């Protein structure tokens, strides 16, 4: 029997998992919000379906036919988890043991004043987005327990990778050095997200939650300074968080201050991080930027 992965949301993280499994011979299907993007996915060998918060999949039987694994990256909204809201009953009818991975966030832990959290700690989210994530995780685990589905949650730290990182922020002139004393964030390179999810697919532990982050929770301003140094650009001046003008979304990222333990993905799944800290990740991304620029110059 061939394996088939269905992704509810083929975004930055899920797409890398899907691409690696497709290269291994898996069938891949997944959702997007527009017909234009659907055609692009089809051209890349992925069977597309239209789905959104207010738009269920019209041909859900076709979508889930033959599916052995499901990866969910669609975020919760006002109606809760959109996948469960629209298709919980359809998923409940899947064969026992069907693997379901839910991409959550470390925001479920809330603020710990710089202290460390593990998967065993109580979930104490700070804001509305965190509370929605906790509710969505609970809904997925409940669905798994009630219907014999193998649900795992991946609590992702701040995601970065190609095209989405501090180097690109500095190059675009959008970098700011916001300083909130004692503040640290955990991060994770998208390739390390993919290898963690793949490790779980190959060695599932039904009902488990995994923190997916690197080894070095660091102040955000340090990352900007490091990226500026790599690019030979003077860093922007420091801005005090207390007086900095930030959008509500940007300010919300500073609500939580914690260090996240990644021991479980190492001990249980055997994950060896390719990018154990932001320095290693940015070095690899810098090399990719140079290679891209050199290729462009050669083609001009």
TrEMBL record:
Entry's Gene Ontology molecular function annotations: 4-phosphoerythronate dehydrogenase activity
Residue stretches in coiled coil: none
InterPro entries documented for this protein: Epimerase_deHydtase (IPR001509), NAD(P)-bd_dom_sf (IPR036291)
Protein's UniProt keywords contain Oxidoreductase: yes
EC number(s) recorded for this UniProt protein: 1.1.1.290
Domain NAD-dependent epimerase/dehydratase: 102-213
Top-level taxon of the source organism: Bacteria
Record Pfam families: Epimerase
Record keywords: NAD, Oxidoreductase
Top-level EC class: oxidoreductase
Annotated PANTHER family: EPIMERASE-RELATED (PTHR43574)
Name listed for the protein in its UniProt record: SDR family oxidoreductase
